[in-house]
Amino acid sequence: MRNVLKHYINGEWINSTGNETTEVINPANKEVIGKISLGTEEDLDKAVQAAREAFSSYSTTTREQRIDLLEKIAAEYENRKEELIEIITEELGSPITKSEEIHYQMGYNHFKQAAEELKQFQFMEEREDSTIMKESIGVSGLITPWNFPTNQTTTKIASALAAGSPMVLKPAEITPFAAIILAEIFDKVGVPKGVFNLVNGTGSTIGNGISSHPDIDFVSFTGSVGVGQKTMENGAKNIKKIALELGGKSPLIVLNDTDPEYAANTAVTHMLTNTGQVCTAATRIIVPKEMKSDFEKALLRVLPNYKVGDPQDEDTFTGPLVAEKIWDRVQEYIQKGIDEGATLLTGGTGNPEGLDKGYYAKPTIFTDVDNKKMTIAREEIFGPVLAVIYVDSLDEAIEVANDTPYGLAGYVIGKDKNRLTKAAQHIRAGRVTINNAEGDFSAPFGGFKQSGIGREWGDYGIDEYLEPKTILGMK
């Protein structure tokens, strides 16, 4: 049992001013693994004032001091590797191998990448008649989601540290323990008091409090479109800068020269990685009609190779959904797919056989999906569900890919370089991947349309925490 009934404020673990707590549940077995305190507005205000007081000193630290701090954090993060992997597996239900390969590793990469970016980052630019300086934006409020307890949290923290911005973090209350370990890491390596503050709590109290607080200058939020809209509304009262990374309904365009087995494995990997709880997951698979039979046979052939089961089992590829309310939501979407007339290729409602104890969902694939009319093609499900859409041409595939309110990611697989390039260049999304290319932690991450505003990762991420100032006559 992990009971953390304190918040990390101004370099100390302090008691909450309130008495409300919440339990954290292991989704694989529905057992309580710990408890956290739910913060109050007073707790938040203490954290904001600590960050405000730290701003003048931390914002003027040197490039070298910040690089050194980030490298010390990365080293201590490595020292806590096993504990981070263990807690992510327990609180999120992520398979233990994925907790290491994806969750732990992405967090480490963000700290290392921010340190590398700082080595050549240009904080000052001389032009013919002016000098342009980039200065810390002030105090930042960070609101992070439950589905990636280290990735989304560390990219924000690392960028804020690199830019000289003290911060207040509110992690998701259903997966809070990875962030608590981060606070312990920062405490051990000597992050200056007030530079990092953590207040656990609900979105309605701490989340809304961050986005509306007059002494917070910038808010970086990752989550749903609805809460993103509320965050913008709150921030508008103080004209504060807002960055949003929101939902997605990402397309995977399959060219007609693609091997069906490769296409099926790509689609299933997207469906089942992190149990489909991935904002960038390709959940709309756009396939040439001529490949329909071969592709569907390949899907049914490869799906059994991806084990659904106990997250502690190293052979497991996908675990449970994170919570009961998420499980219920996914079941509703699967039923809508059936009711609206999509062809259920495999899966359906309920738990997989033998996995009744946790919040497990059946990997579900719908075919013959109408992109315009069916809910499963229009809305983000955030579970192991695929919608397969058949088209007559590449031009139609691109049109379907872009027929969505979202634009976070896109994917294209095939052999013909010219058609791969055409598809990648015409998909309206913040990140497009060709043939499962490796990620790049130096490249910007963020979305078009309702998938968000602003960018994270690399130098673009650092820029979000800076304000440009023009000085005339300094030369």
Describe what you observe in this structure:
This protein has 475 residues and is of the alpha/beta class. The protein is 40% helix and 21% strand. The protein contains 15 helices and 21 strands. It has a seven-stranded mixed sheet with strand order 15-16-17-14-13-18-19, with helices on both faces. It has a six-stranded mixed sheet with strand order 10-9-8-11-12-20, with helices on both faces. A three-stranded mixed sheet has the order 1-5-4, with helices on one face. β9, α6 and β10 form a beta-alpha-beta unit. α2 packs antiparallel against α4. The chain is globular. The protein starts with a strand and ends with a strand.
The average pLDDT is 98
Q: Biggest sheet, open or closed, and with what strands and sense?
A: 7 strands, mixed
Give the fraction of residues assigned to helices: 25-40%
How large a portion of the residues is in β-strands, by DSSP E?
A: 15-25%
Give the N-terminus to C-terminus distance in angstroms: 61 Å
Q: If helices are DSSP runs of H or I spanning 4 or more residues, what is the number of helices?
A: 15
Molecular shape:
globular
| Poorly predicted runs | none
Task: Give the total of beta strands.
Answer: 21
The spatial strand order of the largest sheet comes to 15-16-17-14-13-18-19
What is the rounded Rg?
A: 23 Å
Class of secondary structure makeup: alpha/beta
